Amino acid sequence: MDDLFLLTEARMRRIEPYFPLSHGIARVDDRRVISGIIFVIRNGLRWRDAPREYGPHKTIYNRFVRWSRLGVFNKIKRSELLSVSRRKKSSIVRSSR
């Protein structure tokens, strides 16, 4: 997985609270699948062209569709935007001293 994108463990810890709970059956590795979703979207690939290291393309696609419908990615994006906004505000305050 040298050239492939993989979310850091720190980033995964930040976004995990937004993931829906698994019902009964354990999910495939979230970090690998979410990284696969990001890789496909960033590179403009078809789902079936996702590298095998991310898992089955059908799993990546299904997770994207299900979690999109649940608003998971919107919640993560909003959270990330808020944290960036807070960091900018705190750096502005520090630099004006």
Automatic annotation (TrEMBL):
Coiled coil: none annotated. Pfam families: DUF4096. It comes from the Bacteria. This is Insertion element IS402-like domain-containing protein. Residues 7-76 form the Insertion element IS402-like domain.
